[in-house]
Design a protein that fits this description.
alpha/beta; Spore Coat Polysaccharide Biosynthesis Protein SpsA, Chain A; 8-stranded mixed sheet; 5-stranded mixed sheet; 12 helices; 19 strands; about 30% helix
């Protein structure tokens, strides 16, 4: 299909955005725009896509009347306008948003679905640039699959030629005066997007290239695809070792294990949690435990090592990351780890605030070889798997 593209970009006047998020997500099985996507609600990621764009003056959310509290939490500290209450249909909700701009109308307005959080800046640029040459602009992607028309029984009635067909996406852009008049004209109808509203009122819509990454979350499968698109899996590894010293117990994975010796270290010398901390820090490129908790600092003398792991998790969460798995291997001849394994798994899961099935604790020996084999100390190695939002 031959798409139409605007000419060279010119300076554009003020552009506002309406983010429509008043739906109930029937096919999703919940209010999808507030679903957690890699550490943030979908609607927050959508709003951020526009608050971070230099061509946008004002971002106006449209929400369901029952969602005021959950929206306030999701949009906390974002530089956006006060939310507008939506209507019974998407078309009515969009019109409410447009009417809310009437007191200080923009020259241009973009209308976007809250359930499309992954919005490349290049698509926003193309839509805005297209409005230099047209009153209405819709980003589209060409249809690549063969299309079938089917009846209620699932029987194919015909194969639909795909020549000239495209999938419409958002944000869709319009001259403000033209689209608000179109919505007033089309009031009471149930049209599926704002381009259709504009066409119904006699307007002409131009297309620009969209992006396959602009996935609208309608079903759980859409959500899974979007999660995979927006995040990447990373692996970090950590290793630590401490020698034995006088004492009556060692701390491993946050659990006190009775023993005829202790472990020598500036903190509580928990080799397992130290290695776990380094593994997470390594996965997100955040240095190592010594960078964040230098042994020269008296503040950490005798400190519980769970403090270090919690800090690593905080840094992971700041990257909108999640911990997929911690695989911990403790290397020693003694003490025996087996009797304490369940308690160790539970302790690490509590500290990292994950479910126990995301934590594995294993033990091995070196068959009498090396410093652990000679019972001079304990070592641990850890592999951490995390998912983070790149960039």
């Amino acid at each position: 299909m031959s798409l139409q593209h605007p000419g060279p970009a010119l300076p554009t006047p003020a552009c506002d955005v309406i983010v429509v998020g008043a739906g109930r997500g029937t096919r999703f099985g919940g209010v999808k725009q507030y679903e957690d996507l890699a550490g943030q609600p979908i609607i927050r990621r959508t709003l951020q896509a526009f608050t971070r764009h230099p061509g946008i003056r004002r971002v106006v959310p449209v929400i369901h009347p029952d969602d005021s509290a959950i929206f306030a939490a999701a949009a906390k500290e974002l530089d956006i306008a006060a939310p507008v209450i939506g209507g019974a249909t998407r078309q009515e909700s969009t019109r409410n948003g447009l009417e809310a701009l009437a007191d200080a109308p923009p020259a241009l307005v973009l209308i976007h679905d809250a359930a499309r959080p992954h919005v490349p800046a290049a698509v926003i640029d193309r839509v805005i640039a297209g409005l230099v040459h047209a009153d209405g602009v819709v980003p589209v992607v060409a249809v690549s699959d063969t299309l079938k028309r089917v009846d209620d029984t699932g029987r194919v009635i015909e194969t639909v030629p795909r020549t000239g067909l495209a999938r419409a996406q958002t944000p869709q852009g319009f001259k403000y005066a033209a689209i608000i008049n179109a919505h007033r004209t089309a009031a009471g109808r149930d049209l599926t997007d704002d381009g259709a509203v504009f066409e119904y009122a006699g307007g002409h819509v131009m297309t620009v290239a969209g992006d396959d990454a602009i996935i609208k979350v309608t079903t759980r499968d859409d959500f899974r695809k979007l999660t995979e698109l927006m995040t990447e899996t990373r692996i970090g590894q950590g290793f630590d070792a401490h020698r034995f010293t006088a004492g009556d117990a060692v701390t491993l994975c946050g659990v006190r294990v009775p023993h005829d010796q202790g472990l020598l270290g500036h903190s509580d010398a928990d080799v397992a949690l130290h290695a776990a901390t380094d593994a997470i820090l390594g996965a997100i490129g955040a240095g190592d435990i010594g960078l964040h908790f230098p042994p020269s600092n008296p503040e950490y003398k005798g400190a519980p090592s769970e403090r270090f792991l919690r800090r690593a998790m905080e840094l992971l969460h700041k990257r909108d990351g999640t911990l997929v798995n911690l695989d911990i291997t403790i290397i020693c001849e003694r003490p025996k780890i087996g009797p304490h394994r369940d308690a160790m798994v539970a302790a690490v899961a509590r500290i990292a605030d994950v479910t126990p099935d995301r934590v594995s604790v294993k033990a091995t020996t070196t068959e009498g070889m090396g410093f652990t084999g000679r019972a001079e100390g304990i070592a641990a190695q850890v592999v951490a798997t995390v998912r983070v939002v790149p960039g």
